Amino acid sequence: MQKYRQPIAIENIGHNGTELFNQEEFCRLLDHFPDKEMLGLVLDTGHANLNNWEIPEALEATKDQLLVIHLNDNDGHTDNHLAIGDGNINWEPIFKKLQQIPKKCRFILEYNTVMPYEKLQEGKKLLREYL
């Protein structure tokens, strides 16, 4: 049997009482594991917004542990995976922090399934412009 070395990525999921971690717990989560070689984090901006996180602070605290960032917006009440700028997230300080994220991290536009293709193109353009 061949072994695959696929890292395990832990995401900041949930809101309205179902979240697994608050911001501080998420930022310190990997401190609890002695062998972090195959562990990393996924920070979802929409989930962070729903839980009133300071997203730029969370990015700064976890930047070396992040494997993936799910980029999406919302109104602060519903996890509706809106396009960047279509909700109430303040993106300017987030884009500044994203510029400091190590290259190993992947950015994913995690938009809802009925998102017009043009919105995906706009998101891609924003990422290229700011990153």
TrEMBL record:
Listed InterPro entries: IolE/XylAMocC-like (IPR050312), Xyl_isomerase-like_sf (IPR036237), Xyl_isomerase-like_TIM-brl (IPR013022)
Matches recorded under Pfam families: AP_endonuc_2
Residues annotated as domain Xylose isomerase-like TIM barrel: 5-129
Record keywords, A-Z: Isomerase
MF terms (GO), sorted A to Z: isomerase activity
Name recorded for this polypeptide: Sugar phosphate isomerase/epimerase
Organism: Virgibacillus halodenitrificans
Source lineage: Bacteria, Bacillati, Bacillota, Bacilli, Bacillales
